[in-house]
Design a protein that fits this description.
By secondary structure, the chain is mostly helical. Among the domains are: 3-95; 134-176. The chain has helices at residues 3-8, 11-26, 33-52, 56-123, 126-198. Helix 2 packs antiparallel against helix 3 and helix 3 runs antiparallel to helix 4 (56-123). The chain is flat. Residues 1-13 have low confidence and may be disordered.
């Protein structure tokens, strides 16, 4: 019996294989790995039985065998996934517990600090506040005077640097102009001398 004849003579096996393959495609992310493994294994076994030339019973047997193998493989994968999810859940729970404990400690410290401040405030008199106000204002005035002296010193230094730069630029420009004028003046004297030498002297009168 050739393969084409077998496929034509085994409509039940074909329908079973088609159903298994359809279920494989419909198994979404929400399906467990065990169910997916069983479906995929069954589909692969059924298709393998058809390709091998088995009759309807052989195809069904191959499908069941594939489903069993797929179930085992899927169960192992599902078990690993469950363990991973449990580990993640435990880690999240631990992190939340640590965060809650930290917030509780911070709240307790803030409340204790506030109680200490209140107790200390009851012991402070108005005279102490007035004295501290005077001392603070005196310190601020001294700081302002020092800052003013510092700013004045910085300004004097910048002014001196600016004046030195102006002097340097003026001297450089004066030297350049002096050299230029000397060259022009020297050239003019040379030209006048050459002109006088080129004019012939008058003949002596008889």
């Amino acid at each position: 019996m050739n393969r084409k004849h077998l496929l034509r003579s085994s409509p039940i096996a074909l329908i079973a294989a088609a159903v298994l393959i359809f279920q494989t495609g419909c198994a979404g992310p929400s399906a467990s790995k065990t169910a997916k493994g069983a479906t995929v294994g069954g589909a692969v076994g059924a298709v393998g039985g058809l390709v091998a030339g088995e009759d309807a019973g052989g195809v069904a047997t191959a499908g069941l065998a594939g489903a069993a193998i797929g179930t085992v493989v899927g169960a192992i994968a599902q078990n690993r996934e469950n363990k991973r999810q449990d580990t993640l859940a435990q880690q999240r729970a631990y992190n939340q517990a640590v965060a809650m404990q930290k917030r509780a400690q911070e709240k307790e410290k803030a409340e204790l600090k506030e109680e200490l401040e209140i107790a200390e405030g009851f012991r402070i008199t108005q005279e102490e506040l007035d004295e501290m106000t005077s001392r603070a204002e005196s310190a601020e005035a001294e700081l302002a005077a020092l800052q003013k002296r510092r700013d004045a010193a910085i300004e004097r230094k910048r002014s001196l640097d600016e004046l030195e730069q102006r002097e340097k630029e003026a001297l450089a420009e004066a030297a350049r102009l002096e050299k230029e004028l000397a060259e022009l003046e020297g050239g003019s004297n040379t030209a006048s001398t050459e002109t006088r030498e080129s004019v012939p002297s008058e003949a002596p009168q008889l």
